[in-house]
């Protein structure tokens, strides 16, 4: 009996609190009955009757939970689903005029708040499983609180969860909000951890789970088993692996995830005579109750959606779940008896996991919800009643996309306002990109085709991706091997399935997922109905492919991509992003595409790929027609090392990707000079007239500037050298033009005539000695000036010669007759006195024919 559920222990407190303050935060363990019984309590105690008979709207984070909970409550009340109890999820509404208890997914109510800010007919809103912190749950709670405080003081707000921070939510709701807690009557759960860290186990996660089950089953009776896997792929691999294990014989092995048909979802939850192993995603963490589960095997992983606002990419990576999620999963084993939870990671690893998952408002694309808030009159997003602020980057990225789509006008978050286009886009329960595509379709007379294309993208893929060669050949015969859009291929596949009444065998021949294809039809019709209601012209005549391509481009202009080369599938997108075109795409022949889906997908083996899917071929002229203000040109200049010449072309840019180019002759002179100078400075090009005499002139200048700073001579450093070389290269764009250029005069023009005189006087190129001889001086920065001469050429020179107004003595390399140094000195007088006598005696014997004076 449902009245025996633990939640009924606090039934009176729940009713009293809602009667007095109209706000309540309720925490209760999984399986206590809060999701199904609290709405019935409100109905039973008349809390939905004032001021008129109204509804309790129960917000659920997931569609599968909304549908199953509604079915369960309807069964408990003995009514037909869709009458007193109903549900509404995106694209499906099973409710009626008599509906009093309505389970819905979160985005539905937020849109209703725009159409009807009074929320007529709604007496209470219950935010279930709020700990999951779904995006629309946060936003809808904020709007509901505003509505309650402004014009609906009678509106009852109830926030429930198994693992919620009650105090935080209560403080957010206000001082008059009370918190209640139900301890429940769950059974103890023995939590067992892996014997070694998970990163040391290299086996796939599905094999680890199967091994854990088999090891347990050899010693104990597992009873019904619930396994948690990150996604449908891992679920399928787990079921396949269990099918080959002796210990799993006799068990019904069932999947549970959001992509399954309602029938298959129900099969996993329903009670049956044989024991079962249910392998589920995190949809089974909360709301859904699978009675009889004794053993939970937890991979500790989930595919967690995130949005990278820096790259405008949706990611769906496999990540470690938080401690709170792990506790939720473990609690599934203690519903009806003592339970066991096997965690496939170590206890030490568990302590390092996050306490809670980050709220979706801080990790998902906000564009759809921002458009909804702007339609509700929220002018300044920074001052909106955020439970947790999403961050400026996420807000700006969402507004930038909406502005690109024409949905907002104005630049800053506090001043941007919704446009008429934006309001029209809200009529379609779709991401703003698809809504914009549908509105554009009216201009190109392809509304019907656009509605079908949009419907085909909202659920599971109609075409199965991994198929054998036979199916591929049949697809090629029927659909062709290439297309102007992958959406056109999906449309052909759906039409084929529809023409054969979604016959399973006929669909299987072409690898068409019959159930998914069948679900497209009602959605297609719903979009057509909305289009007609919004007075869009639905033309009966078939539209051209070009018309639909242009409508798609208008919705996905921020995802224009260009193939980087013909040999691979690598692409560059606008805004500096990169990705790989999906292998199954039939638009490989196009150089320029618009991409409807961009996803960063992580696999169990650790690989991460940015995949560009559902591509549509784009002609550059279409972009010029549709987005004339987004084009610019850029001259790109480069040096060709083979031709030893500068070339340039003018590139045509759509936003920041290059669409075409044409040569520019002659290349821009300033940039050409810069590139030639770079090659000269790096030593890859040689200026013949830039010889050692030029280097010595520069060294003389830089030395004298240091020795005599009062002369205020301008030194010639590396940057200055580059500037001089650029001046030499000015007007040229090839090595031939500069190779034989006379450069010495241009270098010396660095100085004025007076400065040149100072340089020649005080750092002379040649130095006259006291004996009348003139010698070339060698200069080097940070070293003394140097002369080299034979001993005989120094006779009669008693004092060390100097430069720089006598401040800098010259370093003398004294040479023997064979021109090899025998002495180095800056003190010539001491040389003659201390060293010469011994040298004279030694050298005179070796070179007797030379003069050797006695001093």
Verbal overview:
By secondary structure, the protein is an alpha/beta fold. The protein has 6 domains: 2-181, P-loop containing nucleotide triphosphate hydrolases (Rossmann fold), CATH 3.40.50.300; 189-362, P-loop containing nucleotide triphosphate hydrolases (Rossmann fold, 3-Layer(aba) Sandwich), CATH 3.40.50; 379-426, no CATH class; 558-630; 631-763, no CATH class; 766-846, no CATH class. The strands form 8 sheets. The protein has an 8-stranded mixed β-sheet with strand order 4-3-5-2-6-7-1-8, sandwiched between helices. The protein has a 6-stranded parallel β-sheet with strand order 9-16-13-10-12-11, with helices on both faces. A 5-stranded mixed β-barrel has the order 19-20-21-23-22. It is elongated, with a radius of gyration of 41 Å.
- Average pLDDT figure: 89
Tell me what the CATH architecture of the largest domain is.
3-Layer(aba) Sandwich
Which runs of at least 5 residues are low in confidence (pLDDT < 50)? none
Number of domains: 6
Q: What's the overall geometry?
A: elongated
Going by helix content, strand content and strand pairing, the class is: alpha/beta
Task: Tally the beta strands.
Answer: 33
């Amino acid at each position: 009996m449902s009245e025996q559920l633990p939640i009924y222990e606090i039934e009176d407190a729940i009713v009293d609190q809602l009667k007095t303050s109209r706000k309540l935060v309720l925490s209760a363990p999984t399986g206590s009955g809060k999701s199904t019984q609290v709405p019935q309590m409100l109905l039973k105690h008349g809390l939905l009757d004032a001021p008129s008979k109204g509804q309790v709207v129960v917000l659920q984070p997931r569609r599968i939970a909304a549908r199953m909970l509604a079915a369960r409550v309807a069964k408990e009340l003995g009514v037909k689903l869709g009458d007193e109890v109903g549900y509404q999820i995106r694209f499906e509404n099973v409710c009626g005029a008599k509906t009093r208890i309505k389970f819905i997914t979160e985005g539905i109510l937020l849109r209703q708040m725009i159409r009807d800010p009074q929320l007529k007919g709604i007496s209470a809103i219950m935010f279930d499983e709020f700990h999951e912190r779904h995006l629309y749950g946060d936003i809808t709670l904020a709007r509901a609180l505003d509505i309650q405080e402004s014009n609906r003081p009678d509106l009852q707000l109830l926030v429930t969860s198994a693992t919620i921070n009650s105090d935080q939510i209560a403080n957010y709701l206000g001082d008059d909000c009370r918190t209640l807690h139900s301890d429940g009557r769950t059974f103890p759960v023995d939590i067992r951890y892996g014997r070694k860290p998970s990163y040391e186990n290299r086996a796939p996660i599905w094999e680890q789970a199967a091994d854990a089950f088999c090891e347990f089953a050899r010693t104990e009776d597992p009873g019904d088993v619930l396994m948690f896997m990150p996604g449908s792929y891992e679920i399928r691999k787990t079921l396949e692996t269990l099918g080959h294990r002796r210990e799993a014989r006799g068990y019904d092995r069932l999947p549970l995830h959001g992509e399954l048909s309602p029938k298959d979802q129900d099969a996993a939850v329903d009670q049956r005579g044989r024991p079962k192993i249910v392998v589920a995603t995190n949809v089974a963490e909360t709301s859904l109750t699978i009675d009889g589960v004794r053993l939970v095997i937890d991979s500790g992983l989930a595919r967690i959606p995130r949005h990278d606002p820096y790259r405008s990419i949706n990611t769906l990576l496999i990540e470690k779940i938080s401690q709170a999620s792990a506790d939720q999963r473990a609690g599934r084993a203690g519903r009806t008896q003592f339970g066991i939870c096997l965690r496939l990671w170590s206890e030490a690893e568990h302590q390092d996991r996050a306490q809670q998952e980050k709220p979706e408002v801080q990790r998902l694309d906000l564009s759809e919800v921002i458009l909804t808030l702007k339609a509700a009159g929220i002018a300044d997003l920074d001052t909106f009643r955020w439970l947790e602020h999403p961050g400026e980057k996420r807000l700006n990225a969402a507004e930038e996309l909406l502005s690109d789509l024409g949905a907002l006008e104005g630049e800053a978050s506090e001043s941007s306002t919704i446009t008429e286009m934006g309001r029209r886009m809200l009529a379609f329960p779709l991401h703003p990109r698809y809504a914009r595509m549908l509105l554009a379709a009216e201009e190109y007379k392809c509304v019907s085709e656009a509605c079908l294309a949009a419907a085909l993208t909202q659920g599971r893929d109609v075409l199965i991706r991994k198929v054998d060669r036979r199916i591929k050949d049949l697809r090629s015969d029927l659909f062709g091997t290439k297309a102007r859009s992958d959406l056109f291929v999906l449309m052909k596949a759906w039409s084929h399935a529809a023409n054969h009444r979604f016959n399973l065998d006929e669909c299987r021949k072409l690898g068409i997922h019959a159930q998914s294809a069948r679900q497209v039809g009602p959605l297609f019709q719903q979009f057509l109905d909305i289009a007609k209601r919004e007075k869009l012209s639905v033309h009966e005549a078939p539209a051209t492919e070009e018309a639909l391509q242009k409508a798609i481009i208008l919705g996905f202009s921020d995802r224009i991509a260009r193939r980087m080369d013909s040999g691979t599938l690598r692409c560059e997108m606008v805004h500096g992003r990169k990705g790989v075109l999906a292998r199954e795409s039939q638009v490989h022949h196009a150089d320029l595409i618009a991409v409807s889906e961009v996803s960063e997908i992580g696999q169990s083996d650790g690989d991460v790929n940015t995949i560009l899917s559902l591509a549509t071929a784009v002609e550059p002229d279409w972009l010029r027609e549709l987005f004339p203000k987004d084009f610019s040109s850029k001259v790109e200049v480069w040096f060709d090392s083979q031709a030893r010449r500068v070339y340039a072309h003018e590139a045509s840019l759509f936003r920041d990707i290059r669409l075409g180019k044409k040569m520019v002759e002659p290349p821009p002179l300033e940039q050409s000079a810069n590139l030639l100078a770079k090659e000269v400075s790096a030593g890859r090009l040689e200026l013949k007239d830039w010889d050692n005499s030029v280097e010595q002139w520069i060294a003389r200048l830089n030395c004298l500037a240091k020795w005599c700073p009062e002369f205020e001579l301008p030194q010639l450093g590396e940057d200055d050298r580059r500037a001089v070389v650029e001046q030499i290269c000015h007007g040229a764009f090839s090595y031939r033009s500069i190779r034989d250029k006379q450069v010495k005069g241009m270098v010396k023009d660095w100085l004025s005539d007076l400065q040149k005189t100072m340089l020649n006087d005080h750092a002379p190129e040649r130095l006259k000695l006291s004996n009348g001889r003139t010698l070339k001086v060698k200069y080097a920065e940070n070293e003394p000036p140097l002369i080299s001469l034979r001993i005989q050429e120094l006779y009669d020179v008693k004092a060390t010669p100097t430069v720089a107004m006598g401040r800098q003595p010259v370093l003398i390399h004294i040479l023997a007759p064979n021109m090899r140094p025998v002495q180095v000195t800056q003190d010539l007088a001491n040389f003659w006195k201390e060293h010469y006598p011994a040298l004279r005696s030694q050298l005179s014997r070796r070179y007797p024919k030379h003069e050797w004076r006695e001093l």
